[in-house]
From TrEMBL:
Name of the featured protein: Amino acid/amide ABC transporter membrane protein 2 (HAAT family) /amino acid/amide ABC transporter ATP-binding protein 1 (HAAT family)
Pfam families to which the protein is assigned, alphabetical: ABC_tran, BCA_ABC_TP_C, BPD_transp_2
PANTHER family attached to this UniProt entry: AMINO ACID ABC TRANSPORTER ATP-BINDING PROTEIN, CONSERVED COMPONENT OF ABC TRANSPORTER FOR NATURAL AMINO ACIDS-RELATED
Residues spanning the membrane: 9-26, 32-53, 85-105, 112-130, 161-180, 210-230, 282-302, 311-328, 334-358
């Protein structure tokens, strides 16, 4: 970032903070103060919900329930034990986070619509429990709570409480932002983009989904607690299905993966029902909206940035909405219709929410440039991979000629098909071991078995003398087996540098508190990781693409990026599944150089490849699979002249 931009941001932040602080004084109207207070409380919850929905890509219909748990923890602790705010607030966070864990542990074994159902059931059960547990919650009667008071003084007034909420909003925003920019946030994003690659980079998908739910629940708990003091009365009906939908709507409309989006979304869901209650103000808003959309569409058309077809529907939609608002005096429940229409419009035309839309509009025609601040001149980081290896624990420099991978009599059966049929494979340390064979012969299946994605039906697999059968993918990855995928599995929405940083996740010891407080340990780890990641990119010749989104890289570079990410794991064994597929001739030459360099650093390589020149060029040993069985093994030259291999495989391809 350049200095000018930083100071501009700083000015915006200061202006925003001052406006937030003086609003109650300037407004003086308790109704509006309370309204903004509610917006801020919802925003705190939405910061947390966005971690689950926007970052990890999971649906949660249980957040109204968690909000209720937070509110009732505060309410019950106050009513039964007379606890002050400075105790109820942290306890609300802790109790709700625990409920989040209870929800996550079983719920995250399922995904998609099943997850939606489980979280929905959770929300419903919470509401029923609050209703039925009279002895604790006073059931439908609800609980009355005065505003917090400090040091035995009088309860705070509306303005003072507003400031308390505003301060906690700012703290929440800073903490959430830090967490999402850290290795934790990268883990959340990675598991959404490619769960299988996350696991194979040592980032346990299951564990980080649970973390995301627990952190998210903590914020819901804080929001619930603040809400109970804000309303000064809580009752079970508030925490219903409608509120859960409203929260999701706020994330979708504001835009996922942005804190500003959460603020905008929360403003929309608090203000919209108020506006819709008052038909006249709604007319004004609808008309203004229609005019704005028409204006924007006209501008976009004149600049030829969109096609008329794309403009027609949103313009017709909003103008229709405006017209509709003039003709609906007699309808009783038109609010729901409008909500429905808005959801449709947003889902179809504002997929990245208001923030995403504005960002795209401002960015139009400009290329986004991201510079990578490694904090050190490039020259110093250039040989990161070398220094890592040499300064390491000597892992890669063990004696040659002892097997590092030992596969014995492995069978992998898929219903009727034996993808691997009693295969033995012995990979010697520090060598490049080729694995070839026709399509469907079981090569990728072998890699999936070696990395714990499949558990073999029978047989034994030893890595560095220890069995790895039945261990998790992330555990196997952390013990030193890294891989790439036949169908590239990058974290698409993350930059090239961030992709490699996920591979470096194992170098972090910092926890949530370190990140929230930006401890010295965390800053040192993050800096070291960035330097190393940049070195990895340089190693595969991608240093100039560090700031580019992985999904927008050309295919050949994506394959190289996968190798850099795998190397970040600091592996003893690197499994490459058809790395040259789709590469141009010069890229393949580059690849061969890289594979050799990797081996020279002491890393054992297992290479699946169809390009025979590559295989013959770099491999020390080659094993040939056909119909799940090993039909030959030996030095490249021996394989090339083997009758069985020529018949089964080499005869069919231009070697
Ligand atoms: P290769 O990588 O050598 O081209 P694969 O290992 O991908 O071959 O596949 C070997 C055989 O196993 C193929 O017939 C494939 O259809 C089958 N197979 C692979 N994975 C599965 C799976 N998850 N379920 C069922 N069959 C599978
Ligand atoms: Mg394959």
């Amino acid at each position: 970032m350049d200095k000018k931009k930083v100071s501009k941001n700083a000015i915006a932040i200061v202006v925003g903070l001052v406006a937030l602080a003086v609003f109650p004084v300037l407004s003086g109207n308790p109704y509006y103060i309370h309204l903004v207070e509610t917006i801020m409380i919802y925003a705190i919850l939405l910061f947390g919900l966005d971690i689950v929905v926007g970052y990890t890509g999971q649906v949660s219909l249980g957040h109204a329930g968690l909000f209720g748990v937070g509110a009732y923890t505060a309410g019950v602790l106050f009513m039964k034990l007379g606890m002050p705010f400075y105790l109820t607030a942290p306890l609300s966070i802790v109790v709700t986070a625990a409920f989040g864990a209870v929800l996550a542990l079983p719920a995250l074994r399922v995904s998609g619509p099943y997850l939606a159902m489980v979280t929905l059931a959770f929300g419903t059960i919470i509401q029923i429990l609050i209703n039925e547990m009279d002895f604790l919650t006073s059931g439908p009667l609800g609980i009355k709570i005065p505003k917090p008071s400090f040091g035995g003084g009088a309860p705070m007034n509306e303005t003072q409480y507003y400031w308390l909420v505003a301060a906690l909003l700012v703290v929440s925003l800073v903490v959430v932002h830090r967490v999402l920019k850290s290795h934790l946030g990268r883990a959340f994003e990675a598991l959404r983009d490619s769960p299988v690659a996350s696991d194979c980079m040592g980032v346990s998908v299951y564990r980080y989904k649970v973390y995301a739910f627990v952190i998210s629940a903590g914020f819901a708990g804080l929001a619930g607690c603040l809400y109970s003091y804000s309303e000064q009365y809580i009752s079970p009906n508030t925490y219903n299905f409608e509120l859960t939908i409203l929260f999701l709507l706020a994330i979708i409309m504001g835009g996922r993966k942005t804190r500003l989006g959460a603020l905008i979304g929360s403003t929309i869901i608090v203000m919209l029902p108020k506006l819709l209650d008052d038909i006249d103000s709604f007319r004004i808003v609808a008309t203004a909206l229609a005019a704005l959309v028409a204006l924007g569409a006209g501008y976009a058309l004149s600049r030829k940035t969109v096609t008329p077809r794309k403009v027609a529907v949103p313009v017709a939609g909003t103008i229709g909405l405006a017209a509709f608002s003039y003709g609906i005096n007699t309808l009783t429940d038109w609010r729901l219709t409008i909500f429905g229409l808005m959801i449709l419009l947003v889902v179809y035309y504002l997929q990245d929410g208001v923030v995403g839309f504005v960002r795209k509009f401002l960015m139009h025609g400009r290329v986004r440039t991201v510079t990578v601040d490694t904090g050190k001149p490039v020259e110093i980081v250039a040989d990161a991979i070398v220094s890592v290896r040499d300064g390491g624990d000597g892992k890669g420099h063990d004696a040659h000629d002892t097997p590092i991978l030992n596969v014995r009599d492995v069978v992998m059966q898929f219903s009727g098909l034996k993808a691997l049929n009693h295969v033995d494979l012995s990979v010697r340390r520090g060598t490049i071991h080729g694995l070839i064979g026709p399509n469907g012969s079981g090569k990728s299946t072998m890699m999936n078995v070696l990395t714990g994605i499949y558990v073999p039906t029978a047989g034994a697999i030893e890595y560095a003398g220890q069995s790895i059968v039945g261990r998790t993918s992330s555990g196997i990855a952390l013990s030193g087996i890294a891989r790439t995928f036949q169908n590239v599995q990058l974290f698409g929405e993350m930059t090239a540098l961030e992709n490699v940083l996920v591979g470096l996740h194992h170098t972090f010891r910092s926890n949530f508190a370190d990140v929230g407080l930006m401890s010295a340990r965390y800053r040192a780890e993050e800096h070291a990781a960035r330097v190393r990641a940049f070195g990895m990119l340089r190693f595969v010749g991608l240093e100039n693409a560090a700031g580019e989104e992985a999904r927008s890289l050309p295919y050949g570079k994506q394959r190289l990026l996968e190798i850099a990410r795998a190397l970040a794991l600091d592996p003893k064994v690197l499994l490459l599944d058809e790395p040259a597929a789709g590469l141009t001739a010069p890229d393949i030459k580059e690849l061969v150089t890289i594979i050799r360099k990797v081996r020279d650093h002491g890393i054992t390589v297992v290479l699946i490849e169809h390009h025979m020149d590559v295989v013959m060029n770099v491999c020390d040993t080659v094993s040939v699979l056909d119909f799940g069985q090993k039909i030959a093994e030996g030095k490249p030259a021996e394989i090339q002249s083997d009758e069985k291999v020529i018949e089964a495989y080499l005869g069919g391809i231009a070697a």
